[in-house]
Amino acid sequence: MEQTRREKEIQELKELIIAQSWLIIKNEGWQALSIRKIADAIAYSSPTIYKHFENKEAILAHFSKEGYLLLDQAIQESLNNAQKGEAQVRAIAKAYWQFAATHVHHYRIMFGLGIPACETINSSYEMKITSSHILEAITNTLSIANNSIANEHQKLKTFWSMLHGFIAIELLSNNDISKQIPETVEDAVEGFIFTLKYNK
Q: Is this model's pTM higher than 0.85 or not?
């Protein structure tokens, strides 16, 4: 169904708000983002912005969801080129790291690095989709190793926490991180795979 002129104008304004918000985040950091600053930049009143987004957190939630969609896409692409089992776990770790290196601003928002954690963001549908792909790779590895004792959900938390921990440490002291996954991370991933295969 074709949009009316008014609907098109509303959609274009929302896209303008999002684009300007992202520009502020990239150039000045999330701390500089405010409804007033967005309104001034696009020459609209603050109440007009509030018609599209309830508050600044709602804008950040938009970018968080966008980030999870990008992360899930990266993970799915990595899985398409990997055999089942431990090769999938390695592929996910590499894709995850490279996503964080390529989309630093998204990553900071997604995981609350420097911003208050938001339950709505952290329990988002998009995050659950991403975790389901990681869980499948872990489950496949456990199945191939005939490991029926390990708790796959616990292993998922361990794996995600491990990757996030390395990235968070890097981003605490650097604005950017290398796209090349460090040897320390590769070593940790191999140790994790070992536990999936042999800790029964």
A: yes
